[in-house]
Amino acid sequence: MKMKKEILKITFIACAALVLTSCGDDYLVEEPTGDELNIRQLGEAAQVNPEIPGAFMTGVYSTMFTAGTGGTTSQADLGQKGYDIYSDMISGDVALTTSTYGWYRAAITQLQAPQDFTLNENYHVWRYYYRVINRANLVIETVLGEPQPEEETELMAIISELSDANRHIAAQAFVMRAHSYFNLTQFMINDVTASWTSPTLPLYLRAGIVGNPKSTTEEVYNAMEEDLSRAIPLLADFARPSKVEVDQSIAQTILGYVLASRKDRWSDVVDITDDALASTSASLMQADNSINGILGGFNDVNSTGWMWGIDINADIGLGLVSWWGQMDAFSYSYAAVGDNKAMDLDLYESMRPDDVRRDQYFDNPSSARHLQPLFKFYDSDRVIFGSSQIVKADYIYMRYAEPLLLNIEALAKDGREGEAKTALENFVSARGMDPSYISALNGQALQDEIYKQTRLELWGEGRSYFALKRNEGTVVRGANHLSFVGEAMQWNDERLTFEIPQQEIQDNTNISDQN
Which residue range or ranges hold the SusD-like N-terminal domain (predicted)? Predict the structure, then answer.
């Protein structure tokens, strides 16, 4: 706790003292700030005092859990976990089963936002991820003492002269920039491969710049791969002080997601996820209700299954406007009092009888809480509509099962079915199942089973949407949804992809001219 208070204090001091950074601003819709002289002065200061770029990097991470970072006061505008909710609902795996207060009802579950660029949900996604990108760019420029050079050899020459602390900070900023661009490619591009040479997203590799035209999908992917491939070796000797910071294994996993979304680099995905599994200290969560178990509430960052997350406490001050405030019935939450979220009925019924993950959900068809995740995600108090308005349960961003399941998927799609089957058998055994059925699966049937296991394992964690697009799946909502029940929607249906928001089109003439 003391470390967190110190980090937050450093961030405040840096933001207050260095007006240039204006930590609350979004540079993509404001006038650019700073100039080469200021950046050079920041770089010189950073070499003397590494707490300065460290504080700026903490600001990047704080964006992930801060309300309003999508540019509005909406109670769905709550940072990275808010977009995990968006993606899980659009994929159909999270069902809104009752809607008293209306959050997510029209724009997300009725898919109005992806069809109407004036709705704020498009703006949330766009503003949030470009805000993170710009802050990461500011970190990079602060560490380098100048804007990022275009030539890789020149950039690496500068990095080679940095202290270990500043080298690690720059690497983390590269990872966070790539992470944001990856999310944008999934949320904002209908079909990555079909639009490979088409202009799709503006690319910003320098801070404080506004109004870039769209780059092609290929150019955005090249930038992501360069950022991650550069960061991975730079993080080889990084021992992070807490799980809020990205490390080498997280960078490797994100690169795995990037390559997998291309659908043509499966051997590379196998290799990089192998590396991620080898370099992380995390392990597969157990089939029990301990802190390290899949029935343990997913509320403690110290779980050995978590690779990336944040210790939420009273100092951070999250309340109703939070992931827990929207998803968990054992919190002061909408999920407790009338905006119930549950597992898709058909997905639940697809689970085998001996799958221990069935126990994560409240199975009572006569109850309005049917299939709510009462035994997967829960506040430690375990009181429906808990009395405390302060969230104290932690946020998970990534866990060991992600690179593991992505590795199994890549093995199967790379034609290495024997290895994929063995790994899948081990995984389902760890979830209490008799693995004998796996041996009969081949080809598409094997890939479909891996896809299903990914959805079951990572339900509610913001990964189903990415898996839907990778596997070119079909969304068919079960009977416990409030809309589109039984209607088949393909992975590249335009209703499943957000639009460039009205605000950006109005402010950025280079984009409006391209449309």
Answer: 115-239
Please, is 278 exposed, middle or buried when counting C-beta atoms within 10 Å of its C-beta (0-12, 13-18, 19+)?
Answer: exposed
Residue at 139: amino acid letter: V
- For the stretch 114-172, pLDDT in tens is 999 999 999 999 999 999 999 999 999 999 999 999 999 999 999 999 999 999 999 99
Residue recorded with tokens 């240039």? 20
pLDDT in tens, 340-395: 999 999 999 999 999 999 999 999 999 999 999 999 999 877 889 986 888 889 99
Contacts for 437 with CB less than 8 Å, ≥ 6 apart: none
CA 409 to chain CA mean position, Å: 19
Total Cβ atoms within 10 A of residue 351: 19
515 burial type by CB count under 10 A (0-12 exposed, 13-18 middle, 19+ buried): exposed
Work out whether the CA dihedral 480, 483, 489, 495 comes out positive or negative: negative
Please give the Cα distance from 416 to 368 (Å, whole number): 44
Determine the Cα–Cα distance for residues 163 and 4; give it in Å rounded to an integer. 23
From first CA to last CA, the distance across the chain in angstroms is 49
C-alpha 139 chain-centroid distance: 20
> Rounded CA gap, 96 and 105, in Å?
7
Q: With cut-offs at 50, 70 and 90, classify the pLDDT of residue 38.
A: low
Read off φ and ψ for residue 380, nearest 5 degrees.
-60, -20
User: Residues 323, 66: contact at Cβ < 8 Å?
Assistant: no
434 near 354, Cβ under 8 Å?
Answer: yes
Q: Is 151 exposed, middle or buried (0-12, 13-18, 19+ CB in 10 A)?
A: exposed
Please give the Cα distance from 188 to 500 (Å, whole number). 7
- Determine contact, residues 71/127, Cβ cutoff 8 Å: yes
What is the C-alpha to C-alpha distance for residues 116 and 95, in angstroms, rounded to an integer? Answer: 22
Q: At what angle do helices 164-188 and 80-91 cross, to 10 degrees?
A: 30
Which pLDDT score, from 0 to 100, does residue 45 have? 63
Q: How far apart are CA 340 and CA 244, in angstroms?
A: 29
Q: What is the dihedral of CA 244, 393, 13, 176, to 10 degrees?
A: 30
Task: Measure the CA angle with vertex 228, ends 226 and 233; round to 5°.
Answer: 105
* Non-local CB neighbours of 230 within 8 Å, separated by 6+ positions: 152, 155, 156, 171, 174
**Percent of the chain's residues with pLDDT above 90:** 84
